[in-house]
Amino acid sequence: MGNVDTKLNFRKAVVQLTSKSEPIDANDDSFWEQFWSENVTNIQDVFTLVPASEIRQLREDAPTNLATLCYKTVEKLVKAVDNSCRTQQEQQTVLNCARLLTRILPYIFEDPEWKSFFWASLPSQGEDEDDSVPLAHSLLNAICDLLFCPDFTVAASRKSGPDKAEELSAIDSCEYIWESGVGFAHSPSRNPIYESNRTELLKLLLTCFSETMYHPPSDISENPNRWILHLTSADNRHALPLFTSILNTVCAYDPVGLGVPYNHLLFTDLSEPLVETALQIMIVTLDHDTTMSPRAESEQNASETPDNLFINYLSRIHRDEDFHFILSGIVRLLNNPLVQTYLPNSTKKVHFHQELLVFFWKVCDYNKKFLYYVLKSSELLDILVPILYHLNDSRADQSRVGLMHIGVFILLLLSGERNFGVRLNKPYTATIPMDIPVFTGTHADLLIVVFHKIITTGHQRLQPLFDCLLTILVNVSPYLKTLSMVASTKLLHLLEAFSTPWFLFSAASNHHLVFFLLEIFNNIIQYQFDGNSNLVYTIIRKRQVFHSLANLPTDYGAIAKSMNRRTKGRDTVTSSSEIDSGRAESDPSHGESGEKEEVAMEGSRPALPAEPGTLNATLPDTPHIGQMTERESAHPPANESEGVVGVTGVEDMKDLKEKKTSKKDASKVKSSNGNESSFSRSVKTGPWMVHKNTGFQKIATN
Predict the structure, then answer these.
(1) For residues 103 and 145, is the Cβ–Cβ distance under 8 A?
(2) Among 209, 248, 206, which residue's Cα sits nearest to residue 228?
(3) DSSP secondary-structure letter at 702?
(4) In this predicted model, what pLDDT tens digit does every residue of 372-389 receive, in sequence order?
(5) How far apart are CA 477 and CA 472, in angstroms?
(6) Which of 349, 467, 557, 651 has the fewest Cβ atoms within 10 Å of its own Cβ atom?
(7) What pLDDT shows up at residue 580?
(8) For residues 484 and 442, what is the distance between their CA atoms, to the nearest angstrom?
């Protein structure tokens, strides 16, 4: 009953505040104390008891009362700092004030008329404008002081007690860093209450930073977020310990702990909300680079815009043990959703992988030494696998386009370095639940298979990423020693899809995708030919794709015919299979085999089970070796080059026996395959020939 009465009194105070049209006296402490002295136990109660509609009504009908409420709340936080937040009552008052401000600040930010409200001084400071402190600075300073308040958010290093409390304005907050790690070796004892209090204050800090969301983009580029400017500037004496505390808290978090099954169902983990909020704070502050804004570029305002100390501190980390600590923490959290156990749902799963990827991108961007450490580390592939997992999992969800972009950009950044391509040759043995074809191969195969899945079954908003995906494959292709048959088939499937006339002619830049794929094939054949027999075999099997591409129609009538034929059937094609369905149109000789191949390919639909007696090859039968290449002859015709042999360079015993067969049998083989295969003709008449002794030689043409 006591708790119900407490909430009822709080609700009555809110109603009284919104219903009175006349301003309420700021000196009426008995009224204002109702908002923070009552024991409202959690932030959910505040959000329930203070509806959004009433906050907007208060802002429109009684703006003076709303302004007074903000003044009194910030004043209460400042007084708590002055008193060192000694008692339990003061600590509860601080929490209630933080919850109340977290609730009402967004509704102040959304009204442009209140834009300068927090950057005016307190009413009591209006007499001396030169020494006045903006309300926002007072609030931020109070929050930072309270984040390092002994017996409230950190453990006291001295004897505790109300009479022996340290002055918050005099303590060295570097002694109270929350977690050991970068720049701090001491490991403080954990207290769930302290972690909960930190989370409440960090959420208020994050709410203050959200003002940017309510401004137009043009305004943001000219006027940086002043809340972040102050927090990350030298005016904040807690900038270094706050940065270190947030960084160490994120990277030291282990959601599994000792690995006791189902422990997350028995006990409430208060560390996860703290880590998630701290990670969001870190990302927001690192994303605020004032040196890149037009305002900072002008000489007039260059001295007025302070440096972002968070970016400065991050870029100066250089010790290998610190890099190992950061990378291990990121790898541990990224791989957490991928952990498979014998007992279902027995381990805790974290869900802030998108924030982790953004954080990893920022660290690599601002600290190149860390990037080089990652590239030479054995944990590089432990970054790749979860990224591919999340890319594959998010490909069809339009709400996670941002996750797709950051994941692809990270891989694009890593692919520019040789070490990344070399490490892709490590065998892939993990058992991660991904809906991709089963294969036995390397991490390079996994990369190709996932990219193929994204391109063929992702939604249309991912099409701008196709260039990046293929650029990644181009960057690593010279280092891929061996590709599996599955990966080779996927690459040829992409070429077949992107080389269709309707797709090539539908946009001015679509031919770039074909260029990328051809460059991939050229790099692998040029640098890693010996180990990639699967790819070479697949290219030979799919030679018709290259022939069709070489004979691509260029006249207007043929182009219009291809586009019209595509437009007629467009209504019956889904967006996810749009690229796949155009393959049959580019190669009429395939007939119905194009449709069968589309079903057989691993795409958005699972492979159909084969019925007895209905197994049909998805590719045309390979012609006999005698039909594909030239045989060695003691008396070659005059119109053919000398010394031309098969591509394989040798003739097996079967071919030797077949030389003795009658001309009648040979004519049957020839008639069954037409005059000669197109591949055979290309070998004879093309500018490149395979010589028996010297290998590839270019033939002089007139």
Answers:
(1) no
(2) 209
(3) -
(4) 999 999 899 999 999 999
(5) 9
(6) 557
(7) 47
(8) 8
The Cα–Cα gap between 255 and 70 comes to 37
Q: Helix, strand or coil for residue 170?
A: coil
Q: Which two tokens stand for residue 9?
A: 């009194």
Can you read off the two tokens belonging to residue 404?
């797709």
d(CA 69, CA 101): 9
What secondary structure letter does DSSP report for 292?
G
User: Rounded to the nearest 5 degrees, what angle is found at the Cα of 322, between the Cα atoms of 316 and 325?
Assistant: 140
Percent of the chain topping pLDDT 90: 43
> What is the model's pLDDT at position 263?
55
The kind and range of the H/E element at 689 are strand 688-691
At a CB cut-off of 8 Å and minimum separation 6, what does 697 contact?
688, 689, 690, 691
Question: What are the respective helix, strand and coil percentages of the chain, to the nearest 5?
Answer: 60, 0, 35
Give the pLDDT confidence of 102-135 residue by residue, as tens digits.
999 999 999 988 988 998 876 655 455 556 889 9
Backbone CA torsion sign across 35, 38, 42, 48: negative
Q: State pLDDT tens for residues 466-488.
A: 999 999 999 999 999 999 999 99
Total Cβ atoms within 10 A of residue 593: 17
Residues 6+ apart with CB under 8 A from 482: 425, 441, 442, 528, 531, 532, 534
Rounded CA separation 164/84 (Å): 10
Which conformational region is residue 649 in: left (phi greater than 0), alpha (psi within -120 to 50 degrees), or beta? left
Q: Please report the sign of the dihedral spanned by the C-alpha atoms of residue 18, residue 24, residue 30, residue 36.
A: positive
Q: In this structure, what are the phi and psi dihedrals at residue 646, rounded to the nearest 5 degrees? A: -65, 160
Q: Return the exposure string of 456-489: e unless at least 16 CB atoms fall within 10 Å of the residue's CB, then b.
A: bbbeeebeebbeebbbbbbbbbbbbebbbbbbbb
